[in-house]
Automatic annotation (TrEMBL), chains A, B, C:
It holds the Pfam family YjbQ. PANTHER family: UNCHARACTERIZED PROTEIN YJBQ-RELATED, YJBQ FAMILY PROTEIN. It comes from Geovibrio thiophilus. This is YjbQ family protein. InterPro entries: UPF0047_YjbQ-like (IPR001602), YjbQ-like_sf (IPR035917). It comes from the Bacteria. SUPFAM superfamilies: YjbQ-like.
Amino acid sequence: MKSFRKELFFNTTKRMEFINITSHVEKALEESGIQEGLCLVNAMHITASVFINDDEHGLLSDYAKWLEELAPHEPLSRYRHNLTGEDNGDAHHKRQIMGREVVVAVTGSRLDFGTWEQIFYGEFDGRRRKRVLVKIIGE
Amino acid sequence: MKSFRKELFFNTTKRMEFINITSHVEKALEESGIQEGLCLVNAMHITASVFINDDEHGLLSDYAKWLEELAPHEPLSRYRHNLTGEDNGDAHHKRQIMGREVVVAVTGSRLDFGTWEQIFYGEFDGRRRKRVLVKIIGE
Amino acid sequence: MKSFRKELFFNTTKRMEFINITSHVEKALEESGIQEGLCLVNAMHITASVFINDDEHGLLSDYAKWLEELAPHEPLSRYRHNLTGEDNGDAHHKRQIMGREVVVAVTGSRLDFGTWEQIFYGEFDGRRRKRVLVKIIGE
Protein backbone atom coordinates (compact mmCIF):
# COMPACT_ATOMS: atom_id res chain seq x y z
CA MET A 1 0.00 0.00 0.00
CA LYS A 2 1.17 3.50 -0.89
CA SER A 3 0.19 6.67 0.91
CA PHE A 4 0.62 10.28 -0.09
CA ARG A 5 0.03 13.53 1.79
CA LYS A 6 -0.07 17.11 0.62
CA GLU A 7 -1.25 20.39 2.10
CA LEU A 8 -2.86 22.95 -0.20
CA PHE A 9 -2.81 26.63 0.74
CA PHE A 10 -5.32 29.30 -0.20
CA ASN A 11 -5.48 33.01 0.49
CA THR A 12 -9.10 33.99 0.90
CA THR A 13 -10.05 37.62 0.51
CA LYS A 14 -13.68 37.62 1.65
CA ARG A 15 -15.46 36.33 4.72
CA MET A 16 -17.43 33.80 2.64
CA GLU A 17 -15.88 32.42 -0.52
CA PHE A 18 -15.92 29.28 -2.67
CA ILE A 19 -12.77 28.15 -4.49
CA ASN A 20 -12.72 25.34 -7.07
CA ILE A 21 -9.74 23.21 -5.98
CA THR A 22 -10.25 20.25 -8.34
CA SER A 23 -7.11 20.89 -10.40
CA HIS A 24 -5.00 21.09 -7.22
CA VAL A 25 -6.32 17.72 -6.06
CA GLU A 26 -5.73 16.23 -9.51
CA LYS A 27 -2.14 17.47 -9.39
CA ALA A 28 -1.66 15.87 -5.96
CA LEU A 29 -3.04 12.59 -7.29
CA GLU A 30 -0.63 12.72 -10.23
CA GLU A 31 2.29 13.38 -7.85
CA SER A 32 1.23 10.43 -5.69
CA GLY A 33 1.53 7.89 -8.51
CA ILE A 34 -1.44 6.05 -6.97
CA GLN A 35 -3.64 4.26 -9.52
CA GLU A 36 -6.36 2.65 -7.40
CA GLY A 37 -7.50 3.81 -3.97
CA LEU A 38 -9.26 6.50 -1.99
CA CYS A 39 -8.52 10.22 -1.82
CA LEU A 40 -9.52 12.20 1.27
CA VAL A 41 -9.74 15.99 0.94
CA ASN A 42 -10.56 17.90 4.13
CA ALA A 43 -10.54 21.41 5.50
CA MET A 44 -7.97 21.73 8.31
CA HIS A 45 -10.01 24.61 9.75
CA ILE A 46 -13.27 24.29 11.64
CA THR A 47 -14.92 27.28 9.99
CA ALA A 48 -14.47 25.93 6.46
CA SER A 49 -15.74 23.10 4.28
CA VAL A 50 -14.66 20.89 1.44
CA PHE A 51 -17.59 19.78 -0.69
CA ILE A 52 -18.45 18.57 -4.18
CA ASN A 53 -20.95 20.30 -6.42
CA ASP A 54 -21.36 22.22 -9.66
CA ASP A 55 -19.00 25.04 -10.73
CA GLU A 56 -21.79 27.42 -11.67
CA HIS A 57 -21.58 31.04 -10.58
CA GLY A 58 -25.29 31.44 -9.81
CA LEU A 59 -25.38 28.30 -7.67
CA LEU A 60 -22.43 29.44 -5.57
CA SER A 61 -24.15 32.76 -4.87
CA ASP A 62 -27.34 30.82 -4.02
CA TYR A 63 -25.35 28.80 -1.47
CA ALA A 64 -23.95 31.98 0.09
CA LYS A 65 -27.42 33.50 0.47
CA TRP A 66 -28.96 30.26 1.81
CA LEU A 67 -26.21 29.65 4.36
CA GLU A 68 -26.60 33.24 5.55
CA GLU A 69 -30.32 32.54 6.09
CA LEU A 70 -29.67 29.27 7.96
CA ALA A 71 -26.88 30.69 10.13
CA PRO A 72 -26.73 34.51 9.95
CA HIS A 73 -23.47 36.28 10.74
CA GLU A 74 -25.33 38.98 12.66
CA PRO A 75 -26.35 39.82 15.27
CA LEU A 76 -23.06 38.58 16.74
CA SER A 77 -24.90 38.12 20.05
CA ARG A 78 -26.85 35.28 18.43
CA TYR A 79 -23.92 32.96 19.21
CA ARG A 80 -22.56 32.27 22.69
CA HIS A 81 -19.35 31.28 20.90
CA ASN A 82 -18.82 34.95 20.09
CA LEU A 83 -18.55 35.70 23.83
CA THR A 84 -15.01 34.27 23.53
CA GLY A 85 -14.09 37.38 21.52
CA GLU A 86 -14.56 35.64 18.15
CA ASP A 87 -17.06 36.87 15.57
CA ASN A 88 -17.23 33.57 13.65
CA GLY A 89 -20.01 31.68 15.45
CA ASP A 90 -21.96 31.57 12.19
CA ALA A 91 -19.01 30.09 10.29
CA HIS A 92 -18.91 27.02 12.58
CA HIS A 93 -22.57 26.40 11.70
CA LYS A 94 -22.26 27.00 7.95
CA ARG A 95 -19.40 24.50 7.85
CA GLN A 96 -21.61 21.77 9.35
CA ILE A 97 -24.20 22.21 6.57
CA MET A 98 -21.61 21.99 3.78
CA GLY A 99 -19.41 19.33 5.45
CA ARG A 100 -15.73 19.02 6.44
CA GLU A 101 -14.46 16.57 3.88
CA VAL A 102 -14.99 14.51 0.77
CA VAL A 103 -13.72 11.04 -0.03
CA VAL A 104 -13.23 10.41 -3.74
CA ALA A 105 -12.53 7.10 -5.46
CA VAL A 106 -9.30 6.86 -7.44
CA THR A 107 -9.61 4.63 -10.53
CA GLY A 108 -7.04 4.30 -13.31
CA SER A 109 -4.94 7.15 -11.79
CA ARG A 110 -7.89 9.58 -11.98
CA LEU A 111 -10.52 11.05 -9.65
CA ASP A 112 -13.51 8.82 -10.36
CA PHE A 113 -16.14 11.50 -10.91
CA GLY A 114 -19.56 11.92 -12.44
CA THR A 115 -19.86 14.46 -15.24
CA TRP A 116 -20.36 17.60 -13.16
CA GLU A 117 -18.54 16.84 -9.91
CA GLN A 118 -16.05 19.52 -8.88
CA ILE A 119 -14.31 19.90 -5.50
CA PHE A 120 -14.71 23.20 -3.65
CA TYR A 121 -13.11 24.77 -0.64
CA GLY A 122 -15.84 26.71 1.17
CA GLU A 123 -14.54 29.47 3.40
CA PHE A 124 -16.83 31.03 6.03
CA ASP A 125 -14.32 33.02 8.12
CA GLY A 126 -11.82 34.11 5.53
CA ARG A 127 -9.40 36.90 4.84
CA ARG A 128 -6.38 34.86 5.89
CA ARG A 129 -4.24 31.97 4.66
CA LYS A 130 -5.99 28.61 4.93
CA ARG A 131 -5.03 24.94 4.57
CA VAL A 132 -6.62 21.90 2.94
CA LEU A 133 -5.28 18.37 3.46
CA VAL A 134 -5.11 15.79 0.67
CA LYS A 135 -4.39 12.22 1.78
CA ILE A 136 -4.39 9.42 -0.77
CA ILE A 137 -3.99 5.71 -0.04
CA GLY A 138 -3.93 2.87 -2.51
CA GLU A 139 -1.47 1.38 -4.94
CA MET B 1 -4.29 -4.32 -1.42
CA LYS B 2 -7.35 -5.12 -3.50
CA SER B 3 -9.70 -2.58 -5.03
CA PHE B 4 -13.12 -3.01 -6.57
CA ARG B 5 -15.38 -0.63 -8.49
CA LYS B 6 -18.98 -0.91 -9.54
CA GLU B 7 -21.60 1.52 -10.79
CA LEU B 8 -25.20 1.05 -9.71
CA PHE B 9 -28.03 2.40 -11.88
CA PHE B 10 -31.45 3.54 -10.77
CA ASN B 11 -34.46 4.81 -12.69
CA THR B 12 -36.19 7.41 -10.57
CA THR B 13 -39.80 8.26 -11.33
CA LYS B 14 -40.39 11.29 -9.10
CA ARG B 15 -38.58 14.54 -8.57
CA MET B 16 -37.77 13.61 -4.93
CA GLU B 17 -37.36 9.96 -4.04
CA PHE B 18 -35.49 7.74 -1.56
CA ILE B 19 -34.30 4.28 -2.60
CA ASN B 20 -32.86 1.73 -0.18
CA ILE B 21 -29.72 0.50 -1.96
CA THR B 22 -28.22 -1.59 0.88
CA SER B 23 -28.68 -4.94 -0.87
CA HIS B 24 -26.98 -3.59 -4.02
CA VAL B 25 -23.96 -2.47 -1.99
CA GLU B 26 -23.87 -5.83 -0.17
CA LYS B 27 -23.85 -7.59 -3.52
CA ALA B 28 -20.97 -5.42 -4.73
CA LEU B 29 -19.04 -6.23 -1.56
CA GLU B 30 -19.61 -9.95 -2.11
CA GLU B 31 -18.41 -9.65 -5.72
CA SER B 32 -15.29 -7.80 -4.54
CA GLY B 33 -14.10 -10.65 -2.31
CA ILE B 34 -12.74 -8.01 0.07
CA GLN B 35 -12.84 -9.06 3.75
CA GLU B 36 -11.37 -6.06 5.59
CA GLY B 37 -11.36 -2.48 4.35
CA LEU B 38 -13.43 0.58 3.55
CA CYS B 39 -16.38 0.92 1.20
CA LEU B 40 -17.19 4.30 -0.36
CA VAL B 41 -20.67 4.79 -1.81
CA ASN B 42 -21.31 8.14 -3.52
CA ALA B 43 -23.82 9.80 -5.78
CA MET B 44 -22.25 10.60 -9.17
CA HIS B 45 -24.78 13.42 -9.61
CA ILE B 46 -24.70 16.76 -7.85
CA THR B 47 -28.45 16.91 -7.21
CA ALA B 48 -28.53 13.61 -5.31
CA SER B 49 -27.29 12.14 -2.04
CA VAL B 50 -26.17 8.86 -0.55
CA PHE B 51 -26.90 8.69 3.17
CA ILE B 52 -27.47 6.20 5.98
CA ASN B 53 -30.59 6.18 8.10
CA ASP B 54 -33.67 4.15 9.02
CA ASP B 55 -35.86 2.40 6.42
CA GLU B 56 -39.13 3.68 7.88
CA HIS B 57 -41.78 5.04 5.55
CA GLY B 58 -42.91 7.88 7.83
CA LEU B 59 -39.34 9.09 8.36
CA LEU B 60 -38.65 9.24 4.63
CA SER B 61 -41.78 11.35 4.10
CA ASP B 62 -40.67 13.57 7.03
CA TYR B 63 -37.33 14.09 5.27
CA ALA B 64 -39.06 15.06 2.03
CA LYS B 65 -41.23 17.65 3.80
CA TRP B 66 -38.35 19.06 5.84
CA LEU B 67 -36.01 19.38 2.86
CA GLU B 68 -38.76 21.17 0.96
CA GLU B 69 -39.02 23.65 3.88
CA LEU B 70 -35.24 24.20 4.03
CA ALA B 71 -34.81 24.55 0.25
CA PRO B 72 -38.17 24.96 -1.55
CA HIS B 73 -38.45 24.00 -5.20
CA GLU B 74 -40.60 27.07 -5.92
CA PRO B 75 -40.59 29.86 -6.73
CA LEU B 76 -37.96 28.91 -9.32
CA SER B 77 -36.79 32.55 -9.23
CA ARG B 78 -35.52 31.91 -5.68
CA TYR B 79 -32.35 30.43 -7.20
CA ARG B 80 -29.96 32.29 -9.51
CA HIS B 81 -28.88 28.84 -10.67
CA ASN B 82 -32.25 28.50 -12.40
CA LEU B 83 -31.35 31.45 -14.66
CA THR B 84 -29.19 28.92 -16.55
CA GLY B 85 -32.42 27.32 -17.75
CA GLU B 86 -32.38 24.60 -15.07
CA ASP B 87 -35.21 24.20 -12.56
CA ASN B 88 -33.15 22.22 -10.02
CA GLY B 89 -31.58 24.95 -7.86
CA ASP B 90 -33.35 23.48 -4.83
CA ALA B 91 -31.96 19.99 -5.53
CA HIS B 92 -28.35 21.25 -5.25
CA HIS B 93 -29.21 22.56 -1.78
CA LYS B 94 -31.13 19.50 -0.55
CA ARG B 95 -28.17 17.34 -1.53
CA GLN B 96 -25.83 19.37 0.70
CA ILE B 97 -28.06 18.73 3.73
CA MET B 98 -28.21 14.97 3.16
CA GLY B 99 -24.61 14.56 1.95
CA ARG B 100 -22.88 13.18 -1.15
CA GLU B 101 -21.39 9.97 0.18
CA VAL B 102 -20.97 7.44 2.95
CA VAL B 103 -17.89 5.49 3.95
CA VAL B 104 -18.67 2.15 5.56
CA ALA B 105 -16.26 -0.18 7.36
CA VAL B 106 -15.91 -3.68 5.91
CA THR B 107 -15.28 -6.32 8.57
CA GLY B 108 -15.34 -10.08 8.06
CA SER B 109 -16.63 -9.62 4.46
CA ARG B 110 -19.67 -7.65 5.65
CA LEU B 111 -20.78 -4.02 5.92
CA ASP B 112 -20.00 -3.23 9.55
CA PHE B 113 -23.30 -1.67 10.56
CA GLY B 114 -25.27 -0.82 13.67
CA THR B 115 -28.69 -2.48 14.01
CA TRP B 116 -30.73 0.00 11.99
CA GLU B 117 -28.26 1.40 9.47
CA GLN B 118 -29.47 1.23 5.86
CA ILE B 119 -27.96 2.97 2.83
CA PHE B 120 -30.21 5.24 0.77
CA TYR B 121 -29.93 6.97 -2.55
CA GLY B 122 -31.70 10.31 -2.21
CA GLU B 123 -32.85 11.80 -5.48
CA PHE B 124 -33.82 15.49 -5.66
CA ASP B 125 -34.02 16.03 -9.44
CA GLY B 126 -35.25 12.70 -10.66
CA ARG B 127 -37.27 11.21 -13.47
CA ARG B 128 -34.22 9.97 -15.31
CA ARG B 129 -31.56 7.25 -15.05
CA LYS B 130 -29.01 7.93 -12.29
CA ARG B 131 -25.68 6.45 -11.17
CA VAL B 132 -24.12 5.57 -7.81
CA LEU B 133 -20.46 4.61 -7.45
CA VAL B 134 -19.27 1.86 -5.10
CA LYS B 135 -15.52 1.70 -4.53
CA ILE B 136 -14.09 -0.80 -2.05
CA ILE B 137 -10.46 -1.06 -1.00
CA GLY B 138 -8.92 -3.55 1.40
CA GLU B 139 -7.90 -7.17 1.33
CA MET C 1 -2.33 -3.68 4.49
CA LYS C 2 -3.34 -3.70 8.13
CA SER C 3 -6.84 -3.13 9.43
CA PHE C 4 -8.06 -2.44 12.95
CA ARG C 5 -11.56 -2.23 14.44
CA LYS C 6 -12.77 -1.01 17.81
CA GLU C 7 -16.13 -0.09 19.25
CA LEU C 8 -16.35 2.78 21.72
CA PHE C 9 -19.19 2.92 24.24
CA PHE C 10 -20.74 5.98 25.81
CA ASN C 11 -23.47 6.43 28.37
CA THR C 12 -25.40 9.56 27.53
CA THR C 13 -27.49 11.19 30.23
CA LYS C 14 -29.41 13.82 28.27
CA ARG C 15 -31.53 13.74 25.14
CA MET C 16 -29.04 16.00 23.29
CA GLU C 17 -25.39 15.88 24.26
CA PHE C 18 -21.94 16.38 22.72
CA ILE C 19 -18.98 14.27 23.88
CA ASN C 20 -15.38 14.94 22.85
CA ILE C 21 -14.10 11.48 21.84
CA THR C 22 -10.74 12.52 20.37
CA SER C 23 -8.64 10.83 23.07
CA HIS C 24 -10.55 7.56 22.59
CA VAL C 25 -9.86 7.62 18.86
CA GLU C 26 -6.19 8.45 19.49
CA LYS C 27 -5.97 5.47 21.84
CA ALA C 28 -7.52 3.20 19.19
CA LEU C 29 -4.99 4.47 16.65
CA GLU C 30 -2.13 3.73 19.06
CA GLU C 31 -3.48 0.21 19.65
CA SER C 32 -3.71 -0.35 15.88
CA GLY C 33 -0.01 0.25 15.27
CA ILE C 34 -0.98 1.82 11.93
CA GLN C 35 1.36 4.60 10.80
CA GLU C 36 -0.10 5.73 7.47
CA GLY C 37 -3.70 5.33 6.37
CA LEU C 38 -7.29 6.42 6.90
CA CYS C 39 -9.35 6.32 10.08
CA LEU C 40 -13.16 6.11 9.84
CA VAL C 41 -15.17 7.08 12.91
CA ASN C 42 -18.95 6.65 12.66
CA ALA C 43 -22.02 6.58 14.84
CA MET C 44 -23.59 3.10 14.83
CA HIS C 45 -26.96 4.71 15.65
CA ILE C 46 -29.16 6.63 13.25
CA THR C 47 -30.11 9.33 15.73
CA ALA C 48 -26.51 10.34 16.44
CA SER C 49 -23.58 11.98 14.68
CA VAL C 50 -19.82 11.96 14.64
CA PHE C 51 -18.39 15.31 13.58
CA ILE C 52 -15.29 17.47 13.88
CA ASN C 53 -15.33 20.96 15.30
CA ASP C 54 -14.09 23.14 18.15
CA ASP C 55 -14.22 22.05 21.80
CA GLU C 56 -15.71 25.31 23.03
CA HIS C 57 -18.58 25.23 25.49
CA GLY C 58 -20.48 28.18 24.01
CA LEU C 59 -20.30 26.74 20.49
CA LEU C 60 -21.70 23.39 21.59
CA SER C 61 -24.66 25.14 23.24
CA ASP C 62 -25.12 27.20 20.04
CA TYR C 63 -25.30 23.96 18.05
CA ALA C 64 -27.94 22.54 20.42
CA LYS C 65 -30.10 25.65 20.07
CA TRP C 66 -29.70 25.83 16.28
CA LEU C 67 -30.48 22.15 15.72
CA GLU C 68 -33.59 22.55 17.87
CA GLU C 69 -34.66 25.44 15.60
CA LEU C 70 -33.99 23.46 12.40
CA ALA C 71 -35.67 20.26 13.64
CA PRO C 72 -37.70 20.85 16.83
CA HIS C 73 -38.39 17.94 19.16
CA GLU C 74 -41.96 19.14 19.70
CA PRO C 75 -44.72 18.96 18.78
CA LEU C 76 -44.16 15.21 18.41
CA SER C 77 -46.95 15.21 15.80
CA ARG C 78 -44.63 17.17 13.50
CA TYR C 79 -43.04 13.88 12.46
CA ARG C 80 -44.89 10.98 10.86
CA HIS C 81 -42.02 8.83 12.16
CA ASN C 82 -43.38 9.36 15.67
CA LEU C 83 -46.59 7.53 14.66
CA THR C 84 -44.50 4.35 15.06
CA GLY C 85 -44.52 5.01 18.81
CA GLU C 86 -41.07 6.66 18.79
CA ASP C 87 -40.54 10.25 19.97
CA ASN C 88 -37.22 10.73 18.16
CA GLY C 89 -38.29 11.99 14.72
CA ASP C 90 -36.31 15.17 15.35
CA ALA C 91 -33.15 13.23 16.21
CA HIS C 92 -33.10 11.56 12.75
CA HIS C 93 -33.12 15.06 11.21
CA LYS C 94 -30.53 16.62 13.53
CA ARG C 95 -28.18 13.75 12.72
CA GLN C 96 -28.37 14.53 8.98
CA ILE C 97 -27.27 18.13 9.58
CA MET C 98 -24.26 17.12 11.69
CA GLY C 99 -23.34 13.99 9.69
CA ARG C 100 -22.86 10.29 10.44
CA GLU C 101 -19.11 9.94 10.17
CA VAL C 102 -15.70 11.49 9.75
CA VAL C 103 -12.70 10.17 7.84
CA VAL C 104 -9.36 11.34 9.24
CA ALA C 105 -5.93 10.96 7.67
CA VAL C 106 -3.35 9.01 9.67
CA THR C 107 0.18 10.33 9.19
CA GLY C 108 3.24 9.31 11.22
CA SER C 109 1.03 7.27 13.60
CA ARG C 110 -1.08 10.34 14.46
CA LEU C 111 -4.47 11.80 13.53
CA ASP C 112 -3.49 14.37 10.91
CA PHE C 113 -5.39 17.36 12.24
CA GLY C 114 -5.48 21.12 11.92
CA THR C 115 -4.90 23.09 15.12
CA TRP C 116 -8.45 23.10 16.47
CA GLU C 117 -9.95 19.89 15.09
CA GLN C 118 -11.57 17.69 17.74
CA ILE C 119 -13.86 14.68 17.17
CA PHE C 120 -17.30 14.75 18.79
CA TYR C 121 -20.03 12.23 19.30
CA GLY C 122 -23.34 14.10 18.95
CA GLU C 123 -26.26 12.40 20.63
CA PHE C 124 -29.83 13.44 19.76
CA ASP C 125 -31.85 10.64 21.39
CA GLY C 126 -29.80 9.82 24.42
CA ARG C 127 -30.18 8.50 27.95
CA ARG C 128 -28.93 5.06 27.02
CA ARG C 129 -25.68 3.26 26.13
CA LYS C 130 -24.46 4.11 22.62
CA ARG C 131 -21.76 2.82 20.25
CA VAL C 132 -19.22 4.43 17.94
CA LEU C 133 -17.18 2.44 15.43
CA VAL C 134 -13.51 3.15 14.72
CA LYS C 135 -12.05 1.39 11.66
CA ILE C 136 -8.50 2.11 10.59
CA ILE C 137 -6.78 0.79 7.48
CA GLY C 138 -3.23 1.39 6.34
CA GLU C 139 0.19 0.12 7.27
